[in-house]
Amino acid sequence: MPNPYHAKICCTTNLDDARLAAEAGADFFGVVVEVDFSPRSLTIEAARSLFDAPPLPAVALVFEMPERRIHRLIQTLKPFAVQFLGDSDRALLKRLKSTFPETQIWQSVHLPQAGGQVELDDLKAGVEAYLQAGVDALLLDTAAIKQGQIKFGGTGLTFDWTLAGTFMQMVPAGFPVWLAGGIDPDNVAAALAAVDPYGIDLCSGVEARSGKKDPAKVKRLMNAIRQASTKRGEKT
Q: Which positions fall inside the N-(5'phosphoribosyl) anthranilate isomerase (PRAI) domain (predicted)?
């Protein structure tokens, strides 16, 4: 029987929401750290209360953070994983894997919102380079221009899930690939059925307002994921 689908509740800004994710049965929570374009971003210092005694393994999300600052983040917060947004320097990822072998390195791969075009050869080459750099997981998310600024994740917009199916064929069987981008309690079952990823990563789909999670939405999401996991097991 296959493992159940996993869940990461992202863009967490407070300890109460981290505990909510844990109580609902999520596997990870994510914290955006010093990312200028995110309204849910925290400084390293402000994020410490979420990482000191996390109720779940905690993932720190960064974007174009200087290498020395990343070192400080890892040494201060001791996250389970650092998730990189945007197109990351593969040499940097290798150095971090060597310097901090106890910290997982996750890489987001951003695709255009539904209706956009992507060059599959370029996508495959990028994926292979990240795998060679030793990343521990990949995350498929949506990049979109909102209010004149490009945002990598947290857009609340989906991309073409058939493209995600193609992506899944580019990675070794069993390699963790998370699906994000516009997922919510109403469409999560369809997303899982279409892509069959390692797990779901979402932010705005379970919010009451920006930066604050909605307990009812989190519960509905986790119930839907559990039901999808059961159906997946029945098919094998």
A: 7-223
